[in-house]
Amino acid sequence: MKNSLIPRAAAAGLLAGLLSGGTDALAAESRPGLQACRLSGVTHEAFCGVLRRPLDPAKPQGTQIDLHYAVLPALARNRKPDPVLFFAGGPGQSAMALAGPVGRLLTRLSNRRDVVLVDQRGTGRSAPLFCDELPPGAPLAEGADPARLVARMQACGAQLQKLPHGDLRHYTTWVAMQDADAVRQALGAAQVNVVGGSYGTRAVLEYMRQFPQQVRRAVIDGVAPPDMVLPASFSTDNQAALDAVFAACEAEADCRRRHPALRAGFTALLAGLPRQATLVHPLSGRPERVTLTRDFLLGLVRGPLYAPALASALPQAMDDAAAGRFEGLLGLASALGGGSRAMRIAEGMHFSVVCAEDLPRLAQAADAPGADFGNGFAAQYRRICERWPRGAVPAAFYSLPPAPAATLVLSGGADPVTPPRHGERVAKALGAKARHVVVPQAGHGVMALPCVRDVLFRFIDAETDDAALQIDADCARQIPRPPAFVPLLAEGPP
C-alpha cells in the first residue's frame, strides 16, 4: 500500500511468484446459505455468503453491517471437515480480492479442504472504508509531501464518519475476530485451520486468544503481534534491513568494487535534504520539479526492502540518486503491486486499527529509532490519529497465551517490517506447540516460496500436532540472497 503501514508493495511481495492452480472439474453442489459465485483469478466456481453483524457488539439490535465471505470449495468430494480460514494483511486488505493468489498458494490444501476468505469489516465488500486514491499519473509532489497525505487522510476520516456504518470505533481486530467466528459457525465447522500473513498474523493470534477450542492448526507468516507498536518498530526494522543491504554489498566483491562509497554516499544524500530536484515520473515519463524530502526519499527505499530481488538493485539505485539520478529509486518503489485492485487497502479500516491498537502505546515503545529512518513514520501516524475516532481495546488483546494447537511461525531474515525478532518472541510466548522457521535470505512473507508452500501443506495436513511440529523445513535455510544487480550495459567494474 502507498503511504500506509504495510505498503502495497509488501502485500504484493507476500504473494509474489505463485504458480497457477485450480480446475474447472468441480462437481455441482449446493451449500446452504451460500450462493454460487465467481471470484477474480479463480478458475472454478466459488460460493459466497453474507452475514448480518452488529456494528457495535455491545448493541446487538443496533446498526447492522453486511459481512461478506467466500468459500473456495475443496476439489475432492470427500472433503475434510476443517476448512482453512485465511486472514489478509494491511491492515485493510480484502481477502476476497486475493482469492486468485490465495487459492494458488493453498492449492494442495484445497484438494481436500475448503478455503474460506472473509472480507474483514471495513475492507472489500464488508462495510468498506475506502479513501479516494490518487490517480496513477498524479504529480509526484502529491506523494512527496507528508503534510498533504495527513490532510487527505483526515478529510477522508471525516467523510467516512458520515456513512451509515461510519462509527470508526468498531473496526478493531478483536471485534473483527468475533465476525470471523460467526462465519465458522455459519459454515458448521467445529474447527478451522487459521492462516495469516503480515497484519493477518495479528488477526490469527487474536482469533486463537478468543476462540482457542475452534483452532485445529495455525500458520502465521511475518509476525505482527498485538503488542508490537507498529509505527515505532517500523523505523528499527527498516533500518536493520537497510543496514543489511549495505553489509551485503560490502561483503560481495563485485558490489564493493562498483559501489565503494555506497553507505557514505547515501548518508550524504540524506544530509542534503530537503532540496529541489527534477524527477522523471515513472508512468508519464515527464520531468517534474519536486521538493525532495527525507521522508519521501526513505519511502522510495522502504518498498524495495520488502523483496530481496528488488533490494538487490538498491546499491545501483542509491548510487545513482547520490549523483542526482532518481529514476532507479522511483522505478523500484513502484515495481511491486502494479496498481492491482486486489492489493488496494481500505485506509479507513487501516487507521481505525492502528489508531486504536498501536498509537496509544507509542510513547511507551521500547524500539530505538533507526539512524536514517528516525521518527518520521511514527510522527505521520500520530498526526493522522489525532483526529481519528479511537475504539476501545481490551487489555487482554495485548496478551499472548500459550497456543491451543500446533502453530507454525514463519519469518524472513531480510524482512524490513516483521523480521525474526518478532517471530522469535511470539513463538516463545506461544510455548511448546509453536515452531519458528526462519528463511534467512527471504523478505516480507515467505509462505509463497515453493519450499515453504510444501512445508505449510504438510504442517496443516499432518494428522496430529506432534507430527505437524516435526515437519522437515530445512529447505528454507538453503534459499540464497540475490547478488547485487548489475546494469545490462555495464562493462566490468566502474
Shape: globular
- State the fourth-level CATH superfamily of the domain at 8-131 and 170-226 and 396-478: Alpha/Beta hydrolase fold, catalytic domain
Number of helices: 18
Oligomer: single chain
Pattern of helices and strands: HEEEEHEHHHEHEHHHEEHHHHHHEHEHH
Low-confidence stretches: 1-6, 8-28
Helix content: 25-40%
The major pleated sheet works out as: 9 strands, mixed
Radius of gyration: 22 Å
**N- and C-termini, Cα separation:** 36 Å
Strand order of the largest sheet: 1-2-3-5-4-6-7-10-11
**Structural category:** alpha/beta
Mean pLDDT rating: 90
Jot down its keywords.
Rossmann fold; alpha/beta; 18 helices; disordered N terminus; 494 residues; two-stranded antiparallel ribbon; 9-stranded mixed sheet
Explain how this protein is built:
With 494 residues, the protein is α/β, with parallel strands linked by helices. It has a domain at 8-131 and 170-226 and 396-478: Rossmann fold, CATH 3.40.50.1820. It is 37% helix and 13% strand. The protein contains 18 helices and eleven strands. The protein has a nine-stranded mixed beta sheet, with helices on both faces. It has a two-stranded antiparallel ribbon with strand order 8-9. The relative contact order is 0.15. Mean pLDDT is 90; it is low at 1-6 and 8-28.
